[in-house]
Amino acid sequence: MRLTSFTDYSLRTLLFLSAHRDRLVTIQDIADTHAISKNHLMKVVYQLGLSGLIETVRGRNGGLRLAKDPCDINIGTLVRHTESDFFIAECFDSANDHCAITPNCLLKHTLNDAMQAFLAVLDRQTLQDLLPPPPRDSHPVKLRRGAAT
Amino acid sequence: MRLTSFTDYSLRTLLFLSAHRDRLVTIQDIADTHAISKNHLMKVVYQLGLSGLIETVRGRNGGLRLAKDPCDINIGTLVRHTESDFFIAECFDSANDHCAITPNCLLKHTLNDAMQAFLAVLDRQTLQDLLPPPPRDSHPVKLRRGAAT
């Protein structure tokens, strides 16, 4: 059971952009870091742009950046957009369903319930929730003795 | 997002056998009904036999039958056996994970939670729960007037 590569790469692109909000990012940056082909990434970036999640700054020093705050990007909503379908079994794809027992079978309902439970977990998360916690300050403030008195 | 064909065909094979418990079933019966290749089904039947869920009766009039009662076949357990893996994204497959942010990324935990929620729904169902309700008796017993008095 797998999500599509398209969803996987979309999530990683957004995570990368979230982690580098201090600068513009190039597709090459993401491709090098994640060992994903630039061709795949261009389709991902194009689609994320259409969805209003990232924006492109043109020009010689241009690049990509998030168009929304990470806490405003819901993971369940994103995955519903990036997955091509949720045909978890043949009976979900009415155009290609050859299963003779579909009309009376309860399997489809059970698999649909399971899928909804999967998505419900993602619906509770935003991109912000997936980011690693900020590193602890490496130079902690030392309190002077008696400072609190 | 999809289950493998192997899981899909395993479920359909078991549903077919459940619906025809009054006789032995051949692979050809299942192949014809579900439009699945016999080659695929032979692998499915072999694996379900190894798992102790179906048994084969040899001989000229032989065939397949369920080796357990449908209410003793849990769907979550079955799907855990028939899915080749649960590598829902690349970071689940440690041998082929090229994602640079895996050590600090929380996406894997969220996807794992979602997968567990998916399987938890299937864990609550047995093969018996997926069978269509028995047809209503087409010749209902007519109570004689005054029979209850």
Give your account of this protein's structure.
2 copies of one chain form a homodimer. Helix content of chain A is 44%, strand content 5%. Chain A is mainly α and 149 residues long. Chain A has one domain: Arc Repressor Mutant, subunit A (Orthogonal Bundle), CATH 1.10.10. Chain A has a two-stranded antiparallel sheet with strand order 1-2. In chain A, a hairpin with a 5-residue loop joins β1 (54-57) and β2 (63-66). The longest helix of chain A has 17 residues, at 107-123. Chain A is elongated, with a radius of gyration of 21 Å. Chain A starts with a helix and ends in a 19-residue tail after the last helix. At the A-B interface, α1 and α5 of A face α1 and α5 of B.
Keywords:
homodimer, 149 residues, mainly alpha, Arc Repressor Mutant, subunit A, two-stranded antiparallel sheet, 6 helices
Strand content of chain A: 5-15%
CATH topology of chain A: Arc Repressor Mutant, subunit A
Largest interface: A-B, 46 and 46 residues
> For this structure, what is the CATH class of chain A?
Mainly Alpha
| SSE sequence of chain A, one letter per element | HHHEEHHH
Task: Please give the CATH architecture of chain A.
Answer: Orthogonal Bundle
**Helix-residue proportion of chain A:** 40-55%
**Oligomer class:** homodimer
Low-confidence parts of chain A:
none
In short:
Chain A is mainly alpha-helical. Chain A has helices at residues 5-19, 27-34, 38-50, 75-82, 107-123, 127-130, and strands spanning 54-57, 63-66.
